[in-house]
Amino acid sequence: MDANIVLLPGDGIGPEIIEQGQLVLEAVAKRFGHSFQFTSCPMGGNAIDSHGTPLPDETLAACRKADAILLGAVGGPKWDDPNAKTRPEAGLLSLRKELQLFANLRPIKPYKQLIDASPLKREIIEGTDILFLRELTGGIYFGDSGVKPHASGEEAYSMMVYNTEEVARIVRLAAKAAQLRSGRVTSVDKANVLEVSRLWRRVAAQVMADEFPDIQYDVVLVDAMAMHLISRPRDFDVVVTGNMFGDILTDEGSMLPGSLGMLPSASLGEAGPGLYEPIHGSAPDIASQGIANPLATILAAAMALHHSLGLTEEAAAIDAAVEAVLDAGHRTADIAAGGKCLSTEQMGAAVLAVLG
Ligand code: ATP
Ligand code: MG
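Structure for 3-isopropylmalate dehydrogenase, as requested:
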């Protein structure tokens, strides 16, 4: 297959980890007889420096034409001035909006080889395999908001708004994902209090009953879910929720595996390219030292093959290679627990050696 992959290395450790992601994709192309075309574009802080904007028009145009987009990370102290006209993160928000990437997928699957890196007990997390779907372009982050004078000082509001279509499309995606997994969907809301959650719950139930009668479906309140996630994470398969609840729950969930350096994510729309990235940030504290863990980015590349290119066998080969290097005891500093560690390049090379 021919595929056009846009690389957005970004800032901080971004370029270091994207380099390893690209090498892995090249190795997969060679092994399975594909031809991947790579285009690297400025985005984030580096793009502010070179183009005066975090998302240059050329970058957006290249992304629109891509089959998949692999992003490192954006931002850093250099661009943190609160009075700045624009910020690196604004580029990412615009890109998601322009490409209508409404679903954020985050697998939470602690590696058995790294279970001691988790703050939770082995018997609680062992066997956990959750796929979170967070709605990304609606909800309270995008509803009407404002501040007005009030007798006590000021009053502010942020509205949580969802419509039928927004709920239906993400629930549909969750159900389709569940068909390829254990066949269970849990929808998380706050329907005992919020009107918007009651709509969410009605629409979700309807979509599941009409279109996915074979998928096991249940609902959990967000406050209870926050507890279940660390008391019985093994009981969940696909979890679908709105923008803010998903933001909070996925950060909580990211602690199960213990290290940010192992977690990929995908942002998908109805059509067009998906955006794939590690969940961690640009890690300015370790940038340019060659010690960042490239595995989250390599796993994000595998998600790109799976979700945007439909190359499931190739994606599985990358996942298996990551398992194999962990089995062999290879660790970067963030997952080493004091043991011997590899550099970013050495870890990438270990994965390449398995891929052959
Ligand atoms: P952002 O605001 O961009 O999300 P952040 O301040 O939340 O950034 P990260 O950049 O994700 O944080 O980094 C948090 C901590 O995790 C830092 O100490 C960083 O060095 C470490 N870290 C993040 N990613 C990696 C990685 N791939 N390998 C090793 N350590 C990492
Ligand atoms: Mg952060």
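The pocket of adenosine-5'-triphosphate (ligand 1) is lined by residues 13, 73, 75, 260-261, 280-283, 285-286, 292-293, 296, 334 (CB under 6 Å).
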